[in-house]
Amino acid sequence: MDPVKQDLHRSEATMKKTAGELAEIVGGVLHGDPSLVIDDVCSAESAGPSHITFARGIYAEHIEEMHAGVILVDELPEHFTKNLIVVPDCRRSFGQLIDLFHPESHFEPGIHATAIVSPKAQIGSNVCIMAYCIIEDGAVIGDNTVIYPYTYIGKNAVIGNGCELNPGSVVHENSILGNNVVLRAHAVVGGQGFGFSTDEQGHHTHIRQLGRAVIGDNCEIGAGSAVDNGAMNDTVVGSGTKIDNLVHVGHNVQIGNDCFIIAQTGIAGSTTIGNHCILAGQTGINGHVKITDNVVLGGKTGVIGNITEPGVYMGYPARTHAQWGRVEVMVSHLPELMKKVKKLEKQLEAQKDKK
Known about the structure:
By secondary structure, this protein is an alpha/beta fold. It has 4 helices and 40 strands.
């Protein structure tokens, strides 16, 4: 049976809820008119009288300038005239309402006629396998998983329950995905790690990597990102970690739980990263480095040695934020300092000439 899409994505929401109903749904406290009808979610800049939005940080300072019918906030401001719903986390509550007004598409389970699925593969219940997918011998697909067109799943790969593999994604042989894992388009898990032997003439010979790539539960791997398999041991991405687009994770890397790894970050082989770390865009990490828990690396940070203390680090080589700030201030004064040095040099030369 070919999979058939049940609910098409709607560019415009058709559901309507009162402000009072929305407050109850998100578990918040409404300050304003409970009978006001809301028909969609919207950004703070674009929201109109029939929309709900959220405001935190700098946006919370401009609540009175917004035109939204209802605004989700983390804290009640001292003075306000708008309809506000106070919740512990307004962004998360806004996410709930996105799902309410624009529910995700659902697909009928089944295997498309053009998909190639090995009879030796194990397919769970309520699985949707779309056009031109290839699933090799010994692969295991968990219940309620959706596999989009042109996806490849290699021999003995294991895909957990409730996963979403988007078009063109690849899960190589022996790789393991936990439950509720999302692979965005063209993400690659378990490709051969970058291991070579170089002879005396400078020629490179690839050394086969035999380890696996293991992705924990509730992870997301962004579009065009790659997680290589291990050389002998496994490459591991811990549960809850979210990897952005165009990220490279080298062989034997160990990433902890609930990390954020942002676009264009590169992590060289055999590096260990702790739990709850954030690697901002274009961060580069040398091989065989250890980074402890709760570390934040600013954009373009280069890590060439171990980081043993939690905190925020910046620059190349990576320094604590305070150290980096002091260095940047000093660098900004270099032109002025050079002028002073040249002036002193001239004064010294003049004194030598007098002698």
